Amino acid sequence: MEIPLSGNIKDTTLVKLLVYLNRGRKTGTLSLTTAALTKKIYFDVGDVIFASSTFEDDRLGEMLLKAGKISVEQYDKSVEILKASKDKRLGAILVELGYLTPKDLFWGVKYQVREIIHSMFLVEEGEYAFLEGELPTQEVITLKNSIGNLIYAGVNKIVNWTRIRNEMPHTDSVLRLGEDPLSLFQDIELSQQDKKILSLVDGTRTIKQIVDSSWMGSFEALKVLYVLWAIGMVEEMNHGKNLFSPADDKVKEEGTVSLSDILTPYTAEEEMLLKKVDDIFTRLNSMTAMELLEVNEKSDSETIKKSYYRLAKEFHPDRYFSSDDSSIKTKLTAIFDALTKAYNTLKDEKSRTQYVASLRAPKQQEAEDSEARAAEQYRAGIAEFKKGDFWGSIEKFKWAAKLAPKNAVYLNYLSLAYSKVPGRVKEAEEALLAALKIEPFNAEFHSHLGLVYMKAGLKKRAHTSFQKALKIDPENEKAKKGLMQTQ
């Protein structure tokens, strides 16, 4: 469902906005403005990474003071120095004075960001707007926290019964477990009480019955249901059969996913996970739907569905939060999307039969198919690049170049993407040199290589590249400007 990217928060709700931007893998800034303040949340490919606020109590010093990390005396001293300083940040001053360790400061900034986001859930009326595009380059940390956990903590701050009741489905609605594995297996730390509430969602009980059956207060129980419903872990029972119902032994026995499947965390050593992810990712474009889902031609729909849910849990994009590998998110997302595409291809008998027949048919126009897939990867790479996901675009351009090794344009864009990533100048150079082997008289490629050398501080090499570009195309503006800068 499309959600307007601007409007009044009372008409949309922050919960729906956050889920929409996360599922849409948006990059940009969401601002929420009232008469008194403006607060912002920054998204990077759907993940919340930072937040800021114009409200004085949301400043770092005030946050640290309220959290008990610094004393009033320390706060006053640091602010006094801050006012006298032109370029120092409060955090740096607190560390220099010995009031905080660098580790404490990092904790404080992340705490500040979370508190700003959580406080935004309390705003019931205000203008919001999402500006898609690049993110600020300064003062931004990476907040590795799932959207589910952010919503969970934010909703728990709401104390307005009427608001939550109005934003949820009618209390006579029957709830069941959701069917989307992206929602079911997302990273969210539920309390034991919340898990007990979730166990009451069986596809037969209404919201009112669940609340009345709980051992918690009605408001607290409704808040738990609200957050589970908002993030898609539970949904209204308005079509199809429930995946799992403790009240129905047959459904329980044949169900695709159980409550235990959802609540039991997937455990694996990071090294083992990274190895498995890398292995599948490198073979992703050559794997059939059946290979990807670990099934065969004789597998029935139920077997395929179970395998899909098992693998979706194992390769859920939220699993990257526990890793220090900067590229794993891109890889997990690609694998998860491929699993979903494979499942949609094989989930019913008719489409499965057609797919198997297509695999058995003689391969025709293999070169044209490779070109088409390369072009598809190239277009996907351009889209990732525009969103600022340079690692994602690198992987797409690499595949395009692999599928169409004689197309120098793909190598040129691969170099451009590498040049946007710190410490990857060498890879950017190698990709352009490979492009120039294919098209040695391409002035744009020589100009681009000159820019790569300038970024690396190699002015002589940059100068030579710009000269070569101008020899081929004397009117090349990029080369003209570069040559002037390297003289």
Topology, element by element:
Elements: E1 6-8, H1 9-12, H2 14-23, E2 28-33, E3 38-44, E4 47-53, H3 60-66, H4 72-84, H5 90-96, H6 102-120, E5 127-132, H7 147-155, H8 161-167, E6 175-177, H9 181-184, H10 192-199, H11 207-213, H12 218-230, E7 234-236, H13 249-254, H14 259-263, H15 270-283, H16 289-293, H17 301-314, H18 328-346, H19 349-360, H20 366-387, H21 390-403, H22 408-419, H23 425-438, H24 443-455, H25 459-472, H26 477-485
Antiparallel strand pairs: 1-5, 2-3, 2-5, 3-4, 6-7
Question: What does this 3D model show about the protein?
Answer:
This protein folds into four domains: 6-144, no CATH class; 159-260, no CATH class; 270-360, DnaJ domain (Helix Hairpins, Orthogonal Bundle); 366-485, Serine Threonine Protein Phosphatase 5, Tetratricopeptide repeat, CATH 1.25.40.10. It contains 26 helices and seven strands. The chain has helices spanning 9-12, 14-23, 60-66, 72-84, 90-96, 102-120, 147-155, 161-167, 181-184, 192-199, 207-213, 218-230, 249-254, 259-263, 270-283, 289-293, 301-314, 328-346, 349-360, 366-387, 390-403, 408-419, 425-438, 443-455, 459-472, 477-485, and strands spanning 6-8, 28-33, 38-44, 47-53, 127-132, 175-177, 234-236. Strands 1-5-2-3-4 form a five-stranded antiparallel sheet. A hairpin with a 2-residue loop joins strand 3 and strand 4. The N and C termini lie far apart (56 Å).
Could you provide a short overview of the structure?
The protein is of the alpha+beta class and 487 residues long.
Number of domains: 4
Q: pLDDT average, as an integer?
A: 84
- How many H/I helical runs? 26
The largest pleated sheet is described as:
5 strands, antiparallel
Kindly provide the radius of gyration, computed on alpha-carbon positions and rounded to a whole number of angstroms.
Answer: 27 Å
Helical content class: 55-70%
What is the approximate shape? flat
Q: End-to-end distance, in Å?
A: 56 Å
Question: How many strands in all?
Answer: 7
**Percentage beta strand:** 5-15%
Provide the structure class. Answer: alpha+beta
